[in-house]
C-alpha cells in the first residue's frame, strides 16, 4: 500500500499509523493536530491524515459498504486549489504551498484519487488531482514524494495506481524521456546481485541499488499497473526464471520482484523491520503489502503463508496502529479471497467502521476490483493538455459524471 508507508517509521516519530509515506519518517516533528470530525482515527493526522482516510474509505468500499458522507466530505475538503492533496490540512481556508500552507505530495494525492475514483461521483476532484500529478513526472519517468524531488519506486508505483484507476495505460505517461516502467526497471536489482529481482527505493549515495522489501511490494503493483485493491492473478505452477532487469518487460519485472518477496517470507511468514534498533522485529504493514503483491502476480499459494501469519499475529498491531492498519489487512484478505470479518477471530470490517463515521448503508459486496469493470463508462477517450505535454486518459466520461464500481492493490 507506497513508502508510502512504514507504520513503524511513523510510530517512531509519535504517529500511530499503519501505512503512510515512507518519506514522512524523516520529516521534522510539528505541533500535534487534533483529529477533526469526519476523519478516521484519533491519532495526530499531521503526517498521514489523507493517507489513512483514503485507505479506510477504499477498504470499506471493497467489502461492500458505502462510506459515510462526512468521511468522504472530509477527504474531498482536503484537496488543494491546484489539485494535489497534502498529508493534512489543519486549516482548509489557508491556501496550500504558500508560506505556512500545507504542502501537497504525490503519495497523498494518488491515494485520494484511488479512493475517490472507486467511490464514484467525484470526477472533478479526480481530474484535477491527475492533472496535478501529471505535471510532476520527472524526466526519468517516475515521481518523487514531493514536487521536484528525485523519483522513487514507492511514489512512482502509487501514482501509477492512480492513473490506472481511470483506465490510463501507465506506459503512455511520458512527460520526459521515460515512462514509469523505465523508472521501475532502473530501480530493479539484476538477477545475479544480492537481493536479485527486488527493487530499491532509490539508489544510495554511491548510486548502488539495495533491495528494499517495501519498495519491492509497491513495485510489483506498479509494474502490473495496479492500485491498492487487487484480486488474485492467474495462479502459477512454478516461478518463472529471473529476467535480466535491463531487458525485463513490466510483467517480468513484477515476476522477478514477486519471486524475491516469496523467498523473503518463505521461512517465517513475515518480513522483518528495517528500522534501526528493530532487530528481528516483524514488519506487519509490509508483510500485508507483500500478501497483496504476491496475490496480484498470481503467487496465490505463496501469499497464503504470510496471510496466515498475519491472522495469528497482526490483530494487536492493528488495534494499536489504527484505521490504515485495519485497511491494509482488509485489502490483504480481499487479495487472497479470505473473509476479513473472520481474521483470526477479529472482525476487521467492524473494527475499522468503529474508527470513523458509520457507513451510510451496507451494500452488496463489490463483485470486481479492476478499474475496467464499471457501470456508466462511456468508453470515450480524451486528451489532456498539460503545459506542452499531452496525457492520454481513457474513459474520462466516468471522471465527469460516470461511475466505476471500483478500482482495484
From TrEMBL:
The chain crosses the membrane at residues 382-401. Residues 359-379 are annotated as: Disordered. InterPro entries: TAT_signal, Terpenoid_cyclase/PrenylTrfase. Keywords: Membrane, Signal, Transmembrane, Transmembrane helix. Residues 1-24 form the signal peptide. SUPFAM superfamilies: Terpenoid cyclases/Protein prenyltransferases. PROSITE patterns: TAT. This is Squalene cyclase C-terminal domain-containing protein. It comes from Streptomyces bungoensis.
Amino acid at each position: 500500500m507506497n513508502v508510502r508507508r512504514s507504520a513503524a517509521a511513523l510510530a517512531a516519530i509519535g504517529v500511530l499509523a499503519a501505512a503512510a509515506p515512507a518519506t514522512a519518517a524523516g520529516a521534522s516533528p510539528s505541533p500535534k493536530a487534533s483529529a477533526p470530525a469526519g476523519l478516521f482515527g484519533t491519532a495526530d493526522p499531521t503526517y498521514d491524515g489523507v493517507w489513512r482516510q483514503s485507505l479506510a474509505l477504499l477498504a470499506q468500499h471493497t467489502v461492500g459498504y458505502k462510506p459515510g458522507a462526512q468521511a468522504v466530505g472530509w477527504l474531498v475538503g482536503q484537496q488543494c486549489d491546484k489539485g494535489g492533496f497534502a498529508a493534512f490540512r489543519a486549516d482548509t481556508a489557508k491556501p496550500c504551498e504558500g508560506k505556512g500552507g500545507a504542502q501537497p505530495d504525490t503519495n497523498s494525492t494518488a491515494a485520494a484519487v484511488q479512493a475517490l475514483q472507486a467511490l464514484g461521483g467525484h470526477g472533478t476532484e479526480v481530474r484535477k488531482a491527475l492533472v496535478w500529478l501529471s505535471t510532476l513526472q520527472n524526466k526519468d519517468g517516475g515521481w518523487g514524494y514531493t514536487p521536484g524531488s528525485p523519483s522513487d519506486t514507492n511514489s512512482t508505483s502509487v501514482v501509477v495506481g492512480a492513473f490506472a484507476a481511470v483506465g490510463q495505460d501507465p506506459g503512455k505517461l511520458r512527460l520526459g524521456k521515460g515512462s514509469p516502467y523505465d523508472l521501475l526497471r532502473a530501480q530493479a536489482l539484476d538477477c545475479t546481485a544480492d537481493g536479485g529481482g527486488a527493487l530499491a527505493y532509490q539508489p544510495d549515495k554511491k548510486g548502488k541499488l539495495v533491495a528494499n522489501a517495501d519498495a519491492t511490494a509497491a513495485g510489483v503493483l506498479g509494474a502490473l499497473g495496479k492500485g491498492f485493491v487487487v484480486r488474485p492473478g492467474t495462479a502459477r505452477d512454478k516461478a518463472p526464471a529471473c529476467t535480466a532487469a535491463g531487458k525485463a518487460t513490466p510483467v517480468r519485472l513484477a515476476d522477478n520482484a514477486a519471486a524475491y518477496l516469496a523467498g523473503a517470507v518463505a521461512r517465517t511468514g513475515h518480513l522483518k523491520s528495517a528500522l534501526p534498533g528493530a532487530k528481528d522485529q516483524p514488519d506487519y504493514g509490509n508483510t500485508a503489502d507483500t500478501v497483496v503483491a504476491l496475490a496480484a502476480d498470481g503467487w496465490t499459494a505463496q501469499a497464503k503463508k504470510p496471510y496466515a501469519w498475519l491472522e495469528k499475529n497482526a490483530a494487536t498491531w492493528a488495534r494499536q496502529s489504527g484505521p490504515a492498519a485495519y485497511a491494509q489487512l482488509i485489502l490483504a484478505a480481499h487479495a487472497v479471497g479470505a473473509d476479513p470479518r473472520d481474521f483470526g477471530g477479529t472482525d476487521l470490517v467492524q473494527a475499522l467502521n468503529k474508527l470513523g463515521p458509520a457507513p451510510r448503508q451496507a451494500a452488496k459486496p463489490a463483485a470486481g476490483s479492476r478499474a475496467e469493470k464499471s457501470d456508466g463508462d462511456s468508453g470515450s477517450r480524451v486528451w489532456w493538455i498539460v503545459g506542452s505535454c499531452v496525457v492520454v486518459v481513457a474513459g474520462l466520461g466516468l471522471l465527469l459524471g460516470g461511475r466505476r464500481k471500483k478500482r482495484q492493490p
